[in-house]
Specification:
The complex is a heterodimer of chains A (255) and B (283). Chain A is an alpha/beta fold and 255 residues long. Chain A is built from 10 helices and 10 strands. Chain B folds into 2 domains: 38 residues; 227 residues, Orthogonal Bundle (MetI-like fold), CATH 1.10.3720. In chain B, helix 4 crosses helix 6 and helix 7 packs antiparallel against helix 8. The complex binds adenosine-5'-triphosphate (ATP) and magnesium ion.
Chain lengths: 255, 283
């Protein structure tokens, strides 16, 4: 029996509509602190929408309406008084394809700390080095920090994006199919990093790859057509799913 | 020969003819200006202002118009950049994508970009009188700025729209404000295109005669303040072309040659600049 862990993100009755069309229906779930939570479900079931609610990037969509609560450290993200830049600073985001910023490798990692007020050269150098090491990219780029970020391979760019996200000092890492654009070796690299980081960060990863979820997840959320069908510790959901849809998804009947 | 390969050859022929037509047009313009203007071209044209009888064939040059044009187009370009950049970043980073304001602004720019420049000259004139100004560098700058603003906004909007939404989101996800995202990321990625937009607008402003006809005045002196009148190259061409003295007409072509050379230089600088600025660009 795994030890019961504390909750980091508490999602309560979260619903999202895009221009009137429901994408998330009344989702409530507690995401455990410093564990890897995998969000699974067939295409279009609302996984990305769910993830983008957690850092309020969902706000950027035209005609979106959100109801419900997302509590992080007891603070409701959707409270009108909540400061969105402060919320996002707590979360690192890895998207499906890496999107480096149009600047050098160094400046990509330093971007976050700089906008949050760090201007000391020595501190920045140290932050950049530390986080590039944390993302496992340092040895490959230490000689060319001033080169454009786009001169890196896609796999390296994804690790750069990880370093960039970590450099703002988040507590949470959100990842939306972070390996789907990567080759197997780069994917394994990212997965390995997640395993190393799970003790210090709460990680929420959306994935289509069932085997990846089995390898990584401590906790699993299974969604279907905008609804939360099942959630629980990974071992339970994978070995003894309670719901029919989960069973079918895990055995590959629906995908 | 079957029908499809016949179609292919006909279209190839058509393409060839079109290319020839374009080349011929370019060669005719450049050829005429060089052929008619070169005899009147000399160092004095570039370095002297007109002396007393210049427009009757006396000595001197068009330095007044060269400097006047640079001041006018430069001032107008700076002024409209200061308006265009916030508008374009506002349209693309701040406003909701499909909002009425955005659609309406884009539509207005399409309309304004098609308005003939004499209309901007006339509106500029009315504005000048309303502001209590005389025909001057400042009034000319206002008229030219009005003329090139929609052109600049359209050119900037086109490049800023191409910046991937995900890139702006990556910046937002790090806790950047929209202002930081707009200037540090979106404008940075669009920088080569923004530079091109500024210089396209400059080129359009420097070559326009109608907008400055009533607003900038015309003088033999180099303007020494915003309130003094300013000569421009397009008007120097226009006035001298109207003369019935052949040597004065030749000078009109020489002034046109100078104008064309200026635009050529601006284009070359633009290309080089945008090449250099795109070093960090994400493609
Ligand atoms: N910006 C948007 N505007 C309108 N509808 C949207 C938007 N984004 C997503 N949707 C709709 O919301 C639903 C959920 O989409 P979402 O992207 O969250 O699914 P997903 O589970 O991430 O799918 P996938 O596995 O294919 O990435 C879908 O029906 C989708 O069409
Ligand atoms: Mg998705």
């Amino acid at each position: 029996m795994p030890e019961p862990s504390t909750t980091h993100i508490s999602v309560r009755n979260l619903s999202v509509h895009y221009g009137g069309q429901p994408a998330l229906k009344n989702v409530s779930v507690n995401i455990p602190d410093r564990k890897i939570t995998a969000v699974l479900g067939p295409s279009g079931c609302g996984k990305t929408t769910f993830l983008r609610c957690l850092n309020r990037l969902v706000d950027t969509v035209d005609g979106v309406s959100v109801s419900g609560q997302v509590l992080v450290d007891g603070e409701d993200l959707f409270d009108p008084a909540a400061e969105v830049t402060h919320i996002r600073k707590k979360m690192g985001l890895l998207s499906q394809r890496p999107y480096p910023l149009p600047m050098s490798i160094y400046d990509n990692v330093a971007y976050g700390p700089r906008i949050h007020g760090q201007s000391d050269r020595g501190e920045l150098d140290a932050l950049v080095e530390h986080h590039l090491k944390l993302a496992g990219l340092w040895d490959e780029v230490k000689g060319r920090l001033r080169a454009p970020a786009t001169s890196l391979s896609i796999g390296q760019q994804q690790r750069l994006c990880l370093a960039r996200g970590l450099a703002v000092g988040p507590e949470i890492i959100l990842a939306d199919e972070p390996t789907s654009a990567l080759d197997p070796i780069s994917s394994a690299h990212i997965e390995g990093k997640f395993k190393e980081l799970r003790d210090q960060y709460t990680i929420v990863i959306v994935t289509h790859i069932l085997r990846q979820a089995r390898r990584l997840a401590d906790y699993v959320i299974f969604m279907y057509m905008g609804e939360l069908v099942e959630h629980g510790p990974a071992a339970e959901v994978f070995n003894a799913p309670r719901e029919k849809q989960t069973r079918e998804y895990i055995s590959g009947v629906i995908s | 020969m079957n029908r499809r390969s016949a179609e292919e050859s006909i279209f190839k022929g058509l393409m060839g003819l079109s290319f020839l037509a374009i080349l011929a047009a370019l060669a005719t313009i450049v050829g005429t200006v060089v052929w008619k203007g070169l005899p009147a071209m000399n160092w004095d044209m570039l370095t002297k202002t007109p002396s007393g009888g210049f427009y009757l064939g006396g000595s001197g040059g068009v330095l007044n118009a060269i400097v006047g044009s640079l001041y006018l187009a430069g001032g107008a370009t700076v002024a409209s950049s200061c308006l265009a950049l916030p508008i374009v970043l506002g349209l693309n980073v701040y406003a909701r994508r499909a909002s009425r304001l955005v659609t309406f602004t884009r539509f207005s720019m399409d309309v304004l970009a098609g308005v003939p420049s004499i209309v901007f000259g006339a509106v500029g004139y009315v504005l000048m009188v309303a502001l209590g100004l005389k025909a001057s560098l400042l009034a000319g700058i206002i008229a030219v700025a009005l003329l090139i603003l929609p052109i600049m906004i359209k050119a900037m909007d086109e490049v800023v729209r191409l910046v991937p939404q995900e890139m702006a989101e990556a910046s937002a996800a790090l806790g950047a404000t929209r202002l930081e995202t707009a200037f540090l990321v979106v404008a940075r990625q669009a920088l080569p295109g923004l530079a091109t937009a500024v210089l396209i607008a400059f080129g359009r402003g420097v070559g326009d005669a109608a907008s400055v006809l009533f607003t900038a005045g015309f003088t033999d002196n180099i303007p020494d303040s915003l309130m003094s009148p300013a000569a421009t190259l397009p008007l120097a061409v226009f006035f001298q072309l109207g003369s019935n003295l052949p040597e004065v007409q030749e000078r009109a072509y020489a002034a046109a040659l100078i104008l064309m050379a200026m635009i050529l230089i601006v284009s070359l600088v633009t290309r080089e600049l945008s090449r250099r600025l795109s070093r960090h660009n994400v493609r």
